[in-house]
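To illustrate the input format used throughout this study, we show a single complete record. The first block contains the structure-token representation of the backbone; no residue identities are included at this stage. The design step must infer an amino acid for every position from geometry alone.
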């Protein structure tokens, strides 16, 4: 990672507000508009910025449950894992999936309308995925910190 102080400032600013104008960004990082636009374009082309997105309001889109599902496999077969990973890509309510170490094989971040909806999802979708032998759920009682972007270490 070969980023100078200004590149880092640009990355932090666009993580905080991906819709800020180039003029606002330039002012925030202490550059004139043209050099700022060039740097931003370079950061995008070099892969530091993968994309831009909106953060939706959970209540507005009727998401009342956030859960973390610990998924375990009975047999550790590469073919089953690959199939599982392919199939979860098509499940929108799985917000993220991590292959983890420890007592579980995967940690899924899942959203649902309510507990009944989540229970049906676990029964009808998660337990039916290839390789899955058990699912343990951890329900979020409240969100203390939301994804605020990546720190630049």
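Output of the design step:
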């Amino acid at each position: 990672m070969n980023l100078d102080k200004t590149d880092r400032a640009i990355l932090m600013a666009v993580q905080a507000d991906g819709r800020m104008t180039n003029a606002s960004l330039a002012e925030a990082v202490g550059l004139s508009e043209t050099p700022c636009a060039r740097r931003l374009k370079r950061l995008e082309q070099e892969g530091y910025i993968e994309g831009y997105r909106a953060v939706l309001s959970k209540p507005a889109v009727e998401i009342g449950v956030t859960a973390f599902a610990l998924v375990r496999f009975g047999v550790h077969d590469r073919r089953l894992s690959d199939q599982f990973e392919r199939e979860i890509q098509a499940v929108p309510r799985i917000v993220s999936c991590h292959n983890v170490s420890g007592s579980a094989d995967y940690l899924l971040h899942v959203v649902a309308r309510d507990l009944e909806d989540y229970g049906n999802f676990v029964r009808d979708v998660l337990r039916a995925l290839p390789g899955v032998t058990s699912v343990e759920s951890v329900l979020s009682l409240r969100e203390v910190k939301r994804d605020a972007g990546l720190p630049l270490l």
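Structural context for interpreting the output: The radius of gyration is 20 Å. The first helix runs from residue 5 to 16.
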